[in-house]
Write a structure and sequence with these properties.
The chain is α+β, with helices and mostly antiparallel strands and 219 residues long. Helix content is 42%, strand content 12%. Strand 5 and strand 6 form a beta hairpin.
Length: 219
């Protein structure tokens, strides 16, 4: 995890810094060589902890907001895996490629039962809710070699996990589809409007709409 944090370049990193990170990755483990290659002061302090044989202490030097973002991303990754299993149980869905894994969309017959399913995000104490949702997240944790108590993070006092129930499926509200003719374009434009609760992604709704195929004889 620390190697990824300290050596993986972000997409917008300038070429010079990208080359410096590549040298850091190549020297990983040779801490005296790594220290001068750190991009930021807190990276250097983290590398110093690694050199002293204290890898857990290395995370203490990262800004709390960055740690919180990283923890939330991993928490979402585990939750998404639980959701993937819930979708798979409800029949064959449609798998679309994604940057960090495929997006599995449920079949039309499987959507109805997903709306009543709530899955807790992983933390030391799982939020009480649907029995199936809790069983799914515990299964994912078990296969990852984790248990809820591992999320206590006693060595990190500035960041923590908390468990909340998240619906397995969200139904867009106020959905309207309007065809718009454009004098400057030979093709019509479809305007889609809808409302979603906080934490839901409009891009996923658009992807789901594009999965729908018209019945034979309809345009």
């Amino acid at each position: 995890a620390l190697r990824l944090l300290l050596t993986a370049p972000a997409p917008a990193v300038p070429r010079r810094q990208r080359e410096q990170l590549a040298r850091l990755a190549a020297a990983w483990g040779q801490w005296e060589e790594c220290l001068p290659l750190a991009l930021f002061p807190h990276h250097r302090r983290a590398l110093a902890e690694l050199a002293a044989g204290r890898p857990k202490r290395a995370f203490v030097h990262f800004p709390p907001e960055q740690l919180s973002l990283l923890l939330a991303a991993y928490q979402s990754h585990l939750w998404n895996e639980a959701l993937r299993r819930a979708v798979s149980r409800r029949g064959p869905g449609v798998l679309l490629p994604g940057e960090s894994g495929g997006y599995l969309f449920p079949s039309p017959t499987g959507v109805a039962s997903l709306t009543s399913l709530a899955i807790p995000t992983p933390a030391r104490r799982l939020a009480a809710g649907n029995r199936e949702g809790e069983a799914l997240i515990r299964q994912v944790l078990d296969e990852a070699g984790l248990s809820p108590r591992d999320f206590a993070l006693r060595s990190l006092t500035r960041a923590h996990f908390s468990s909340t129930l998240r619906s397995a499926a969200v139904v867009p509200q106020g959905l309207t589809l309007t065809w718009l003719s454009s004098p400057t374009s030979p093709a019509d434009v479809l305007r889609v409007t809808f409302r979603l609760p906080a934490g839901a992604y409009a891009t996923m709704v658009v992807r789901a709409l594009l999965l729908v195929r018209p019945a034979a004889g309809n345009s």
